[in-house]
Design goal:
Strand 6 and strand 7 form a beta hairpin. The protein is built from 13 helices and 13 strands. The structure holds pyridoxal-5'-phosphate (PLP).
Length: about 350
């Protein structure tokens, strides 16, 4: 059977040698040597100032909200994974959904203004499937209105915008290193910031708010990444270029096969190549369901990603017409390191047969 994704498993002997190191150091967690090494290598690889690794991408978002002391309403996108919004709810912040652009699938920056109220504290856009948002426009809206910006960049590992990391934008960007993501540490995530003051505060927040032996922040939690996860990260990072090249080839093969019959996401002209997902858009939900059924009969399991539109889960709000419409028509196809050219061709053949039938 062919799943939508499979975690990348690095060389086991390399992982074992890191585990030997952990046994020797007897340092299992709390800013251990492997974690420090991983953070330094990630900052270098991504081309950013600070990488603070945490236990998962959801906690990365929650810690970001705390670090920026958000209150009240946060303007966000309904076209994302549930965690973008559920973390706001968890922190007692009110998500305000702004509709998306139906070509880029990102928050429609032309609509953000109309959702800003006296209670708005931040904008939380997502680089959907890694596609960079209109970052300069969002920055100017935020500046004009005194708002913070957090990018949920869970899909944007290694993505560049105008030749530099897209993670440099906003006050904080967050990553997920979950096993199914492009780069992973089994479970994990990170906060990225260019600001030294925020970095220090984030490190305190993720370690119970401990500042020193006498003082605490009152908003701390435990969001630390442990040494075993860091070891996995170091192994996967060694292979990341090969992983990207392989996945990019698969994505190009899908696109060549399907370009005449389906729509693809419009990628920001300043973006580097995206390696995380291969979303395709059908003319109707009916057409999507027919294709999905036929693929499943052949033991191929694509995923409706993202479905449903988050405004439909978290609010009574039915105003996000573009997001609701796209959610019903979009499907993510299988994409992982070991996927073979033959499998891709077979998947495309089935899709074509159903659509052109
Ligand atoms: C995966 C994901 C998250 C959550 O990350 P976890 O590490 O699974 O907690 C948040 N936002 C988006 C857009 C994601 O895809």
């Amino acid at each position: 059977m062919t799943p939508v994704t499979k975690p990348y498993l690095p060389d086991i002997n390399k992982l074992k040698s890191y585990i030997d190191e952990i046994y020797k150091s007897e340092h299992l967690t709390n800013s251990g040597p492997l974690l420090k090494k991983l953070e330094a290598r990630l900052a270098d690889y991504l081309g950013v100032k600070h990488v603070i690794c945490v236990a998962n991408g959801s906690l990365a978002l929650q810690v970001a909200y705390k670090a920026l002391e958000l209150e009240g309403e946060v303007i966000t996108t309904p076209f994302s994974f549930a965690a973008t919004t559920s973390t706001l709810q968890w922190e007692k912040l009110t998500p305000v959904f702004c509709d998306i652009d139906n070509k880029t699938y990102n928050i429609d920056n032309n609509l953000i203004d109309k959702y800003i109220t006296n209670n708005t504290s931040a904008i939380l856009p997502v680089h959907v499937f890694g596609n960079p948002c209109n970052v300069s426009e969002i920055e100017s809206i935020a500046k004009k209105n005194g708002l913070k910006v957090i990018y949920d960049a869970a899909h944007a590992f290694g993505v560049e915008y105008k030749g530099e990391s897209v993670l440099k934008y906003g006050d904080i960007s967050t990553l997920s290193f979950h096993a199914t993501k492009l780069f992973h540490t089994v479970e994990g995530g990170a906060l990225i910031t260019e600001c030294d003051v925020l970095e220090k505060k984030i490190r305190e927040l993720i370690n119970f708010g401990i500042i020193d032996s006498n003082s605490f922040l009152n908003s701390g939690t435990n969001a630390k990444m442990n040494e075993f996860e860091a070891a996995m990260g170091l192994c996967v990072l060694d292979d990341i270029e090969e992983i990207k090249v392989t996945r990019n080839k698969i994505i190009r093969l899908y696109k060549n096969n399907l370009k005449d019959i389906l729509q693809f996401q419009e990628i920001n002209e300043y973006s580097s190549e995206l390696s995380s997902y291969i979303p395709i858009v059908f003319e109707s939900e009916e057409s999507l369901l027919n294709v999905k059924l036929k693929l499943e009969e052949n033991e191929i399991y694509p995923r409706r990603y993202f479905y449903p539109s988050l405004n439909e889960i978290y609010t009574e709000d039915t105003n996000c017409i573009e997001s609701s419409s796209l959610s019903k028509k979009i499907l993510c196809l299988p994409l992982f390191f070991e996927l073979k050219e033959n499998d891709v061709n077979k998947i495309c053949k089935i899709i074509k047969e159903v659509i052109c039938d």
